[in-house]
Fold this sequence. Notes:
Layout lengths: L1 E5 L2 E4 L4 H8 L4 E5 L6 H15 L4 E6 L2 H6 L1 H9 L1 H5 L3 E4 L8 E4 L4 E6 L3 H5 L5 E4 L7 H8 L11 E6 L7 H7 L4 E4 L17 H11 L3 H7 L17 H4 E2 L9 E7 L6 E8 L5 E9 L4 H12 L13 E4 L3 H11 L4 E2 L4 H12 L9 E4 L8 H5 L6 H5 L22 H14 L11
Parallel strand pairs: 3-9, 3-10, 4-7, 4-8, 8-9, 11-17, 12-15, 14-17, 15-16
Antiparallel strand pairs: 1-2, 5-6, 6-7, 12-13, 13-14
Bound molecules: adenosine-5'-triphosphate and magnesium ion.
Adenosine-5'-triphosphate binds next to helix 2 and helix 4.
Amino acid sequence: MTTALDQDTTVRYEPRGAARDLFRSRDSEIVIAGPAGTGKSLASLFRVHLAALHNPGIRCLIIRKTAVSLGSTTLVTYEKKVAADTLARGIARWYGGSPREAPCYRYSNGSVIVVGGMDKPQKIMSAEYDLVFADEATELTETDWESIATRLRNGALSWQQQIAACNPERPTHWIKQRCDQGRAKMLISRHRDNPAYMNADGTVTEQGRDYFAKLDNLTGVRALRLREGRWAAAEGLIYDGYDETVHLIDAFKIPNEWGRWMVVDFGFTNPMIIQWWAEDPDGRLYLYRELYHSRRLVEDMARQARELMVYPSGQWREPQPRAVICDHDAEDRATLEKYLQLGTQPAEKKVRAGIQAVQSRFKIQPDCKPRIYIMRGARVERDPELDQAKKPTSTEEEIVGYVWAVKPGGAAPEAPLKENDHGMDTMRYVVAERDLGGRPRMRWVG
Ligand SMILES: Nc1ncnc2c1ncn2[C@@H]1O[C@H](COP(=O)(O)OP(=O)(O)OP(=O)(O)O)[C@@H](O)[C@H]1O
Ligand SMILES: [Mg+2]
């Protein structure tokens, strides 16, 4: 596809397969879904960009669950790969927003592309649009999606459309169900649609070889979803009671009276994890903050953790944790204590009992609530290396792939598969601390 902007400006983009279908579609709700790296985001961004260029005065919206993740991913692709030339020539300009107006790209023909996250919906949801693109749309709730639909009535384009791009999730995800029910149209995007990774004759490009090598390292449900593009559920899920519509909640201001716990699992090649949990007066636990990084020194993690809790003046930003519950490596623990300036206590590491305690916390109680929650956006930063390797980047992302190790001969599973389980261990430690009682009988040597 080539579009002349002026005499000597052209943008070249070759849409294939689902990407081409996307450009032809006038359906009001459309989902472009498929494995990792098939060109879904690029296609949707081109769709929005070209519509803005060719239809003066239209209003578009690019959205993700959180504004921060939009800025670090989708908008980078937009600025570098889609609108670089248009921006360089001043045909579109970035506008950083104001107290009343959301940030946007303003095109010289009067079109705008507003950008934002559903975590801060006020400014974006008070306006009207012709075309909306939600990237990584499985992160949204169906309510988010439906409230976006109510904003699609600007009427400057003869058709209005809401586009979602995503990787497959569990088969019961609302996006899949919405498509199955015919309320949204699903376009299935494949690796062969991406000319950066596959040639038209079906051979793999050099860039594709590197990329597929990463995907080939995936296992379990992540391989099914991100390599094969299947809406698959993991078999042998350990936390099968976890339901993100129940346990994953929007962040709220935690009352100062609630107790706080810090929990730490060490790692370097594997991620090191620091979680912060709040406990309400009824004993429910809320994961409200998390550091989740590979290849970061204990010292650096501890410094960052301290900065998150304590002002440079030494005054606490939030209630001090009642305890820092810690993995057992003596040397790492000493480093952690030094830079955190807090003492630590050893985690109760019994696996089976700990897992059972977490499982029962996920269960809905007679008061209609579970006893454990994860707050959306708890992870402070996404680790780019883990992200590139398509590994989980947060505890929440681990839960849905945490499975029992299958024993030969089909015997009942006894142990979890030791893979992508670091946030799972950390979560188990805090629950063990609260529910299993007693401290492990061990002495720190260090
Ligand atoms: N038609 C195309 N022409 C050239 N390069 C492309 C094309 N489609 C995709 N690419 C490149 O392939 C890479 C992956 O594309 P993109 O990020 O859009 O994939 P995605 O399907 O959104 O991936 P994910 O599942 O990780 O979100 C990017 O570097 C992109 O620029
Ligand atoms: Mg994408």
